[in-house]
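hey can u check if this looks right to u? its 244 residues, i copy pasted from the old doc so theres a chance i mangled smth
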Amino acid sequence: MAGAGERDGEEEEEEIVCLEASFFINDKYTSLSLSFFHYLPPCLLKTDFDLTGQLVWPGAMLLNEYLSKNVDLLKGCSVIELGSGVGITGILCSRFCREVVLTDHNDEVQKILKKNIELHSSKDHSHHAELVAEKLEWGNSDQINQILRRRPGGFDLILGADIYILGSVPLLFDTVKQLLQVRERDCCKFILAYVSRAKIMDSLVVSEAIRHGMQINEIPGTRSVVGNLEGVIFEVTLLEKSPM
């Protein structure tokens, strides 16, 4: 006769349910238009929570609001966005930039990103920059170099919004550093829309930027409440090297 401990173990084992990967993936998207700077970029997104990259997160709303009020920052620039998700920020940027590269590491997210690029390109936007989607896993030097081989001059701006989870922050700043170093002598910077959800993450983002040889500064006037969370825009640049 089985003892109580054995029965508990059996019950715990029975509660374990294994689901196929397809359970978390579907191709049902909702079309949404968001208004920034009197501009409505059409965008497909998910209405459930299968993958974080298939949603529009508060940080993206914060970043888009900031960019729409500071369009001179974008005019004539080449831009790469990290963790683009559905691509809403890149679509906005394409109205003002000369080049926009949207990146994400997830193949399913890449599908919706490319769908949104096609949807945007199907409209009459002849005066907008060309939108390109590239696969980029943070810290993957091969993928970074592949992107840079096609753009040896690098980028004027690196953008990111709500793109941090605890284990990914060091790889995020490793990627940012590699991109910033291409334009070391020019004014290249990383604009990060940050939404505070945990104090440990607040300190980690700042400490990792510093550890990677960067300075991270809050842009004055950008601190605001997004939903019920506090958000802010950071400007991140490489520290200037001391003269020999």
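Strands lie at 30-33, 42-45, 78-81, 99-104, 130-135, 157-161, 189-195, 214-218, 224-226, 229-238.
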